[in-house]
Every structure is written in C-alpha cells, then in structure tokens.
Specification:
Structural class: alpha+beta
Radius of gyration: 18 Å
Number of helices: 2
Strand order of the largest sheet: 1-2-3
Strand content: 15-25%
Low-confidence stretches: none
Number of strands: 3
Length: 96
C-alpha cells in the first residue's frame, strides 16, 4: 500500500508540473505550443493546465484529454490509498 501511495503521489506531482508548465517557453521557445501564435503562455497550478492567451483574449489549452486523465487518475489513486490506509489503520486499532 505504501509503494502504491508513493508511486501515485510522485506521478501526480510530476504530471501536474508537466501539465502546468507545458506552454512555458523557458528552455526552448520554438517548441512551446504558444510559439508562432503570438500568444502569451499562462499557467494554472490547480487543476494543472497551460494555456495560450491569443490576441482576441481567449485562453486555449495546450494539454489534451489524455494528459489530464493521467493526472486525475494518479491524484484519485493517491487519495483512495490514503483513505484506505486510514480505514485499515482504524480497523486494526479497534481489533486490538
């Protein structure tokens, strides 16, 4: 249970960071999804997402549904393991 919790927790952190920083051109500006659109990159940290603000003011996401599904799956697994561990701990404590 601890292994699943640690793996899902780190996957949540890494996927969230990747989703929130995807539009930022901090290393390679030419590979940023906002490059060439004259859009300003915008990061949102919870829920993690990256957007390009275009000239008309509209925010368009640069992350697809699969990336967001991976983050939410890992986050929900982390939460489920925490709740499961609490119930298991309480059950074992009440038996002794």
């Amino acid at each position: 249970m601890l292994t699943v919790f640690l793996l899902a927790g780190w996957l949540t952190v890494l996927a969230g960071w990747a989703l929130s920083q995807r539009a930022q051109p901090f290393l390679f500006p030419e590979t940023s999804p906002c490059y060439g659109t004259s859009g300003t990159p915008v990061s949102q940290y919870f829920p993690p997402d990256s957007f390009c603000r275009h000239a008309d003011g509209e925010l368009r996401t640069v992350n697809g549904a699969n990336s967001k599904l991976m983050f939410w799956s890992a986050a929900n697994t982390t939460l489920a393991v925490m709740i499961g561990a609490a119930f298991l701990w309480r059950h074992q404590r009440s038996r002794s």
